[in-house]
Amino acid sequence: MGLAERRLLHRAEMVTRKAARLRRIALERELADYATPAQRLDLEATLDRYPDGVTHELREILCRRVAAREVQRFPAIGRD
After folding, report:
1. Residue 58's closest CA among 35, 78, 28, 37?
2. What is the pTM of this model?
3. Per-position DSSP letters for 28-45, written without gaps between them
4. Could you tell me where the DSSP H helices lie in the chain?
5. Which of 4, 28, 34, 54 fits 39 for a cystine, CB–CB 3.0-4.6 Å?
6. Mean pLDDT over residues 50-63, rounded?
7. Pick from 19, 24, 62, 27: nearest CA to 41
């Protein structure tokens, strides 16, 4: 593989990563709208209707948000 091909592949990879990052940021913003426990439970019930392979990214974002909230509520947890 020549230098030109490597540069093209590198640029394509960078564009793909940026697009994925922007998509993830937009998804996190949309999920932030589900702020109350009732809204989150409703969303989780909807996600339960689909396979984990389809919903894993959504579930991961929701779990991270819950964990971050718990750290804010109980900052001493997990510290030695």
Report:
1. 28
2. 0.69
3. HHHHHT--SHHHHHHHHH
4. 3-32, 37-47, 52-73
5. 34
6. 93
7. 62
